[in-house]
Write a structure and sequence with these properties.
Blueprint lengths: L1 H22 L13 E7 L5 E3 L2 E3 L1 H9 L6 E7 L8 H12 L3 E5 L5
Parallel strand pairs: 1-4, 4-5
Antiparallel strand pairs: 1-2, 2-3
Helix pairs in contact: 1-3, 2-3
């Protein structure tokens, strides 16, 4: 049940920011939306946060995200799968992405 609420919470948080990505989703035959800059964020199962492969604190991450241009930047978010629920920092990271009003793509594989 815990996982269900985490998924629901994350989905609710992402709805507002990710809506721009979904609205811009191409119809068959159209090209996917292009972003001038794509940044990567990874959260490990141990709770470490990486921004473009550099270890950062959640506050440092927020500062970096808030400096990015909103209309031309997308975030590729990757969280390591563990044998337990996501670390608490994962929800904080999602909040920082949505607070920065950036488009986001959730990835099952490590982001480039």
């Amino acid at each position: 049940m815990k996982k269900f609420w985490l998924v629901v919470t994350c989905a609710a948080l992402l709805t507002g920011c990710a809506q721009k990505v979904y609205e811009a989703a191409p119809t068959p035959g159209e090209a996917a939306p292009k972003f001038g800059k794509v940044v990567s964020i990874k959260v490990t199962k141990a709770g470490e946060v990486f921004y473009n492969k550099k270890a950062v604190s959640v506050d440092e991450l927020a500062g970096e995200l808030n400096r990015l241009p909103k209309d031309d930047t997308a975030v590729c978010y990757d969280r390591e799968e563990g044998d337990r629920d996501a670390p608490p920092v994962a929800l904080e990271v999602i909040r920082k992405i949505t607070d920065a009003r950036l488009a986001v793509r959730l990835s099952r594989e490590e982001c480039p």
